[in-house]
Design goal:
353 residues, alpha/beta, seven-stranded mixed sheet, two-stranded antiparallel ribbon, 9 strands
Length: 353
């Protein structure tokens, strides 16, 4: 008989047992072979939601897929880790990663991806707003030949002013900047083929930009309307301050996507613009000296702007050259190519050819 998972908190003990059909004939030991699915759940102080989430995942996926669950504790201060420790003892499919402090959702998700063994990686929030029942539908969509299936919270159960409106603006802006048009970049529930994430390193709040980063490497992306539920327990960790972080990360993503191997185009371009503006200001200042107010050049503010812009142009160009050297050092020292190959036929490594 599978042992119950117990959660102690809020002055009471909550017990969640497997249904009888799972208790008999169910192998809960971790498989040595690579599982089909890795469910990655980053969480921070979600003690009240973890038992029901664990129950819903196991009830939805058991008997349908060979899967593992990776819970990443992002520095929680409640009893969620103790509950998951007991789940791990009872169910070998449960992995728990515990951070020393709160590093943020992106870091937690990245850790889950690093330790995942599945062919398909599916992150979802621990607040029960994502519905595990959507996972089989996402798997069916992947089987149509896509590399990423992005969840779309079409009927979103959040406050309009603080969550829906900023999200819509951010999604529109991200789509315009990256060229990858999705209705809902912020939905955590997505399905990724393992190889799509193999070379993707996440920083800041970059987890929401994975579809855009993958698209630049040739990944095939689609989206699927998923069920979104209102939060019933716990406190939301998201606020309007996250919008600022998203905008800053968006600039990083745009730079990485378009100019990571040619930064001189950015800094050199800014330098050329500064040089052209300096030339225009200088011509205007000279014309004022000859034909206009007879101002001495050393008293004309346009000359000051000219000198400032020339100095800026020189700095931008030098920054571009330094960035070029750093980019080349980065790629060459690690043996990283500046391209991604989808398929290859023939060549010296193919046996019998």
């Amino acid at each position: 008989m599978v042992r119950p998972c117990a959660l102690e908190g809020a002055g009471k003990t909550i017990y969640k047992r497997f249904p009888q059909k799972y208790a008999s004939g169910m192998d809960t030991k971790p498989s040595r072979k690579r599982p089909e699915l890795s469910i990655v759940v980053p969480f921070f102080n979600e003690e009240a939601n973890l038992p029901e989430l664990y129950k819903q995942i196991t009830e939805t996926l058991t008997g349908k897929y060979d899967f593992e669950m990776i819970f990443v504790d992002d520095g929680s201060t409640d009893g969620g880790y103790e509950f998951l420790r007991k789940c791990h003892e009872a169910d070998g499919r449960v992995q728990v990663i515990r951070f020393r402090r709160n590093f943020g959702q992106t870091a937690a998700m990245s850790a889950g991806f690093d330790f995942a063994r599945g062919d398909v990686l599916i992150p979802l929030d621990a607040d029960l707003q994502n519905d595990p029942a959507d996972i089989p539908r996402m798997m069916d969509k992947l089987s149509e030949g896509y590399d990423i299936v992005s969840g779309w919270r079409k009927d979103r159960k959040d406050k309009a002013a603080t969550r829906k409106l900023p999200s819509r603006i951010a999604n529109w802006l991200i789509g315009r900047v990256t060229g990858v048009r999705l209705h809902d970049y912020g939905c955590t529930l997505k399905a990724y083929r393992r190889e799509v994430l193999a070379e993707t390193k996440l920083y800041g709040e970059m987890h929401r930009f994975i579809p855009a980063l993958a698209n630049w490497k040739g990944a095939r992306i689609t989206e699927l309307a998923v069920n979104h539920r209102a939060r019933t327990a716990g406190v939301s960790k998201y606020g309007l301050n996250r919008t600022v972080k998203v905008m800053l990360d968006l600039m990083t993503v745009r730079f990485l996507g378009s100019y990571s191997t040619k930064p001189i185009y950015v800094f050199g371009g800014l330098g050329m613009i500064s040089m052209v503006l300096a030339f225009i200001f200088l011509v205007v200042a000279i014309c004022q000296r000859i034909f206009g107010e007879k101002l001495h050049l050393n008293k004309n503010v346009l000359v000051t702007f000219t000198v400032l812009l020339v100095m800026m142009a020189i700095q931008f160009i030098l920054m571009g050259l330094l960035a070029e050297i750093m980019v080349r050092t980065y790629h060459e020292s690690q043996g990283r190519p500046t391209y991604v190959v989808r398929d290859r036929l023939g060549g010296p490594d193919d046996e019998g050819k």
